[in-house]
Amino acid sequence: MIRDYYNRHALDEKLRGAPRPAGVNHLAIAHRQAVAMVLAQAGEEDTVQRALSQTTEFILRFCASGEWLVVSENDTPEGLQRRLDALCAGRAYIVDQSEARVLFRLSGPSTRRILAKGVGLDLHPAAFATGASANALCGHVAVNLARTGDDTFELIAPRSFAESLFDDLMAMGREYDLTAAFAG
Amino acid sequence: MASLITCPHCGVRPKEEFSIRGDASLVRPAPTASDEAWHYYVYVRANPRGRTHEHWQHVAGCRRFLVVERDTYTHEVHSVTDGAVVARENGR
């Protein structure tokens, strides 16, 4: 059997069938987004961070010191790579992760209680404010967790763990009637 | 065991996010050092009671190697430093 992985989303099988209408607590899975990893060369961390934070066209997600995930909703993967290459001017290694990562967007009034079942981080706004991001363990999967609003969080997980994380998140959200669908 | 580690890059995290990579106080002998010195470096470990320095890798977070100074008796964590910073301070 020939499978065309390039055109197949990691969660196609999980989300097959007619989507349920989105509930109050909803898990949206981005279908197309550009994600790139930027790793600054030793000693160039501050320069790269300054260069990347100049623009507002893409979102910067903190992974480690000198390492970020860059997420863009509008760019193509190739476009994002070119743009980052130009911005960093050889001071950082840039690797396209668009096909390697799956982006989960969790929204609704119970998101913090849902995430508390799998994430060991303090997600109170005083400790993890809007715009904050960090790598963390969700269940047994290492993800990049970001707060994009008061009650919205984004998780970026490796593609091969996406189905497992999806099942975990749905189990965590079952009590709160979590629904899931691909983002329009 | 200490259950919360304050990672210098990620903040307070549960110990499940880390992987313990052994004694951080050992110094690698010179390549030409005696077999005995290498034997001690590779195989012989103490099981201390009290303060120890250990390498902890934040595998589910920033993936950096950290040097954690903790007490094996009281489970208190005294300090957490990035491994690269410790190596620089020791001139390695």
Assembly status = heterodimer
Bulk shape of chain B: globular
DSSP E strands of chain A, number: 10
CATH topology of chain B: Folate-binding fold
Rg value of chain A: 17 Å
**Largest sheet, strands/sense/barrel of chain B:** 4 strands, antiparallel
Mean pLDDT of chain B: 92
CATH architecture name of the largest domain in chain A:
2-Layer Sandwich
Helix content class of chain A: 10-25%
Number of domains of chain B: 1
Structural class per helix/strand content of chain B? alpha+beta
- SSE pattern of chain B: EEEHEEEH
* Whole-number count of domains of chain A: 2
Strand order within the widest beta sheet of chain A:
7-8-9-6-1-10
**Percent of sequence in beta strands of chain B:** 35-45%
- The first-level CATH class of the largest domain in chain A is given as Alpha Beta
* Rg over alpha carbons of chain B: 14 Å
Distance between the termini of chain B: 29 Å
| Helix run count of chain A | 4
